[in-house]
Amino acid sequence: MSIFNFTDEQSLGEVRSVETSRITVRVTDGQRLQKARVGRLVAIQSMGDEWLIGIIERVWRHPVELPTLPEADPSADLTGVPQEENGVSISLVGTYRARDGQRKNTFTRAVFILPEINRSVFPIEEKSLEDFMGILSASSKADAAAPLKVGTYTLDGKASAYIDGDKLFQRHAALLGSTGSGKSFTVASILEQSAQLPHANIVVLDLHGEYSSMKFAAHYRIAGIGDLKAKKEGAIFLPFWLLTYDEMQSLFVDRSEESAPNQASELMKQVVELKKKSIEGLGKQDLLDGFTVDTPVPYRLADLIEAIAEKDREMVQGSKGEKQGPLFGKLTRFLNRISVKTKDRRYAFMYQAPAEYETYEALHELAEKLLGTGIKQDGVNPGIKIIDFSEVPSDILPVVVGLVARIVYQIQFWSSPGADGDARHPIVLVCDEAHLYLPSSAASTGPLEKRALENFERIAKEGRKYGVGLMVVSQRPSDVSTTILSQCSNIISLRLANKTDQAVVKQLLPESLEGLMEVLPTLDVGEAVVVGDATLLPTRIKMAKPKHEPRSATIPFWTRWATPKAEVDLIAAVENMRRQSRAQED
């Protein structure tokens, strides 16, 4: 039996025009027009127990210009002429069937048959709305082994909103919203539920340490200056030998210099030679069969600098005695640049890694930290990994973030797919503050940003095949690579006040749903428009708050000025700045 049982008196109006996914309704009664509210759901019977479901996009009332009458007929009766025209524009979003084969009360996003002209349109409200939202919740929950609850529907606060976790991650997702709209606690809520799965596998790229309060996750951080004397728990070093040749070029070679081609060529030559020597010294002759300049094997940075320095001062035998070599003096600035960077303690996590990171097994251990899962202990799920990048200098941040993403993708790529081709254990990268290292093509991107972009764009395009998903989180979607955003089949958009950002989000959606995005600047904190493959119905959802809230709450300026939370120790702050470490705060 259908959940819809409308009477003629409940009708909103009649269908007057039909397009591919948008219809126009004529409302003859001004009182009925009051039932039409933007964002409300409507139902149109197509055949039998099959109903089309739509969302009201626009409501209008236009005055009708009365006909001009000849002066000879002043007594004409105009009471029967309508003085206004009422209408509603509706976007079709799916089909409800009371019976679909053996199943009852189903909803699908497919639109099988467009409505006929003059069909009545009914607003879904009260009991009908409650029943329909209940069907959505039940369907979403039943389709998943472990349903992912994201909140409640704005239309009916009693109905829980579930989304398909498989489709959310395997087809990539974008979580967008202005500062203070609720992005961080939405991420935290999803992480909390993911942590309930025994073999969850998520890496959160945390740029500001916002998720350090997530007690259910394993916490790591890119090592800071304070870890040089004594490496503390959770510190990760990323030794320079993990860098690809292109990444090393972007760090060390200044393309504006006349000798840049010589620098790049010599860098490649010496890296190849040192890696081959390292492989031979390790007794791993089998690696030479597939060897490239990017093969990640350890070698000493001091050896690389010395080899390049020899070329910079090399003298060769000429016809009249010794003369300057072909690269004599042309690599001096290159060497100075490498020396300055490698001695800068802010980059110690890459150039001054402890001795154990020079071993062949160092990459094995790093892979275990980034991609490993395990049994939950003391309430911590080791598969949920939060990596704090807050101490990484901003100028090198894109390369470091891109390096982590590339290692994850490449290890996953080279994992054995198994006999059935489906044995890889999937992993998701949560890219917090994505606009900082995944800039749009419109922005001026230097060589560092380009290297990171290349890694993430490859994941966006090909990651699904190898079990690598992306969740892009940003407050400025207009500054994020359009190539990456266009690969996100799921959009969770919280409040966006900027028109440029709103325009970007609209471009990511089908034309039929653009009207739904008109509400973006008016959304409440924590309220989102959810559209994509992971949700049955594109609609507004009040996102659930997590138990462990992230440390991203905006500091209340006026309140703190009235009543400070604690006495400010400026001397300690200055000394932390000098040390480039907050270690003394702990």
Task: Tell me what the structure shows.
The protein has 586 residues and is an alpha/beta fold. It folds into 3 domains: 8-124; 160-239 and 353-546 and 555-585, Rossmann fold, CATH 3.40.50; 245-337, no CATH class. It contains 16 helices and 21 strands. The strands form 3 sheets. A 12-stranded mixed beta sheet has the order 9-8-21-20-19-10-18-17-11-16-12-13. The protein has a 6-stranded antiparallel beta barrel with strand order 1-2-5-4-3-7. β1 (13-18) and β2 form a beta hairpin. 38% of the residues are buried. The model has no long low-confidence stretch (mean pLDDT 87). GO terms for molecular function: ATP binding; DNA binding; helicase activity; hydrolase activity. Residues 421-530 form the Helicase HerA-like C-terminal domain.
